[in-house]
Amino acid sequence: MTATANPCNISADLEKFIVTEAPPTVYYVPNFITEAEEECLLQQVYRAPKPKWTQLSGRRLQNWGGLPNPKGMLAEKLPDWLLKYTEKISSLGAFAGKTANHVLVNEYRPGEGIMPHEDGPLYHPTVTTISLGSHTLLDFYKPICQTQSEIPQTEESRYMLSLLVQQRSLLILQDDMYKLYLHGIQGVCEDILSDHVVNLSSTGAQLGDTLTRSTRVSLTIRNVPKVIRASLLLGKK
Ligand SMILES: O=C(O)CCC(=O)C(=O)O
What we know:
Layout (H helix, E strand, L loop, with lengths): L11 H4 L10 E4 L5 H13 L5 E4 L2 E6 L8 E2 L5 H12 L10 E7 L5 E4 L8 E7 L3 E6 L13 H4 E7 L4 E5 H5 L2 E4 L4 E3 L17 E3 L3 E7 L4 E2 L1 H4 L4
The structure holds 2-oxoglutaric acid (AKG).
The site of 2-oxoglutaric acid has 9 residues, from strand 5 and strand 14.
C-alpha cells in the first residue's frame, strides 16, 4: 500500500478496505504486514524489560509515547521499531494529517479479553490496530440509552456486531465506530463465526468456522493531540 500525497485525507488506497456492513467507519486491511514483520514486532515486544509491562485483569500492556491525561501527555520518543508503523499509518491519512504519537501494546492469552469501553476524548477520534500472533473477535455495543431507563439494558441487548481481526491485519475505526459505539473482546478460547461477524468476506474465513485463539498482541496506534513538551516543564522557552 502506497503512502498518499496528501496525508490529510484518508488514502484512496484505503477506500477499498471500508467495511460497508458496519456503521461509519471501519477499514479492515488483511495482511497489512508480512510474516517477517510480524515476527520482528513480536521479538521487539518481548524484548522490552519486565517493568515495561503492566498486568491488568484479563490482559497485560505496554505503554509507549507517554501517559495520556487531560492536562496533556508528556511525550516520549517512540522507538524506531514502532515509528516505522506509526509513520506508515499516519501517511495513509488515518489521523487527518497528524502523526500518531502513542502506542498501547496489549497481550491477551486465550481466554482473556477487554470489557466494552470507549477510547474517549484524550485521543484524536481514530484508533488503528495491528494484530500479531492470533485473530480475535472485536465486539461492538450500542451505548446505554438514558431515556429508556425502565428497560434493562444488558450487554447482550446492546450487542450490535463483531469484526474478525486476523493476525497481521490493520483495523481503523473512526466516526461513529469510534465516538458512539463501545468495543470489547470476550474472554474466550475459541470463536464461532456467526452472521454477526460483518467483515467475513474480506477475511477468507467461512460462516460457521470455529477459530481457536492463541496469544494475541495488539498494537493500538493513536494520536494524542494534547502534549506537553519537556522543555516547558523544565521552565525553558
Ligand atoms: O486489542 C485490541 O484490539 C483492543 C484494544 C483496546 O480496545 C484498547 O486498548 O483500548
